[in-house]
Amino acid sequence: MRVRRRSLLLVLLLLAIGLFDGFLLLRRARYREEATRLRDGMSTLERTRADAIVSAQADRAELMLELMRRQAEGDDGLHLAISTDSAYLALDRGPARLREIKALIGPERRVGLAPDTMHVAIPRGVRAVQRLLTASDRYELPAWVWIDRGLPVPDVRADSGWVGRGAILTTGGTLIYSLPASGPLADSSYVMPGSIRVPAAELAAIRENLSPGMRVYFF
């Protein structure tokens, strides 16, 4: 009896997955049809302008990232350079690379529960070290972290060690942290959206070289 029940549940699960996949394919097809319909309704000049705008935006983003890289290389002071594309954090002085650390980049997505949602973006641009957190510091995490993880939001959202043995908070609110032993971020498969996670030993190795106000380049 149990075997039949499990088989039935498996069949129902496969049917549900199949229906959901079909729904997604249908929605994608409708989006493509709508995009095609809108382009067909444009004049040749309008289509040319639309394509130019899309291309210009992509080119502008690439140009800004390249300028950010060059600005970091030209900074003679000690600074952090974080490549979100190549997934590394580096301690640099001008073009000299003192240490490079493999990093995990938090995804970019919308978080929270409707209607109280927000879009968390991968950081870009020049920021500065705002605060160096220690293992004993109680850093308050946003409520959406628990929601993103499918956990109930507690009344107290700060505790020591929840961002690892050491962490860096930059201007703009970007968190550079290591895997903690406890708290909502204590999961090796999860990286907080819009944040950077690096190995604790590597972060500890560069910590004594960091200070508030130090420039941090994200590109």
Strand-pairing-aware structural class: alpha+beta
Q: State the end-to-end CA separation.
A: 58 Å
Mean pLDDT: 83
* Strand arrangement in the largest pleated sheet: 3-2-1-13-7-10-11-12-4
Q: How many DSSP-defined strands?
A: 13
What do you see in this structure?
This protein has 219 residues and is an alpha+beta fold. Helices cover 37% and strands 28% of the residues. It is built from 4 helices and 13 strands. The chain has helices at residues 2-40, 44-73, 144-148, 200-207; strands at residues 78-83, 88-93, 96-102, 104-105, 109-113, 116-120, 125-134, 138-140, 158-160, 166-170, 175-177, 196-197, 215-218. It has a 9-stranded mixed sheet with strand order 3-2-1-13-7-10-11-12-4. A two-stranded antiparallel sheet has the order 5-6.
What's the short version?
The protein is built from four helices and 13 strands.
Reconstruct the topology from this structure.
Blueprint: H1 2-40, H2 44-73, E1 78-83, E2 88-93, E3 96-102, E4 104-105, E5 109-113, E6 116-120, E7 125-134, E8 138-140, H3 144-148, E9 158-160, E10 166-170, E11 175-177, E12 196-197, H4 200-207, E13 215-218
Parallel strand pairs: 1-13, 11-12
Antiparallel strand pairs: 1-2, 2-3, 4-12, 5-6, 7-10, 7-13, 8-9, 10-11
Key traits:
two-stranded antiparallel ribbon; nine-stranded mixed β-sheet; alpha+beta; 219 residues
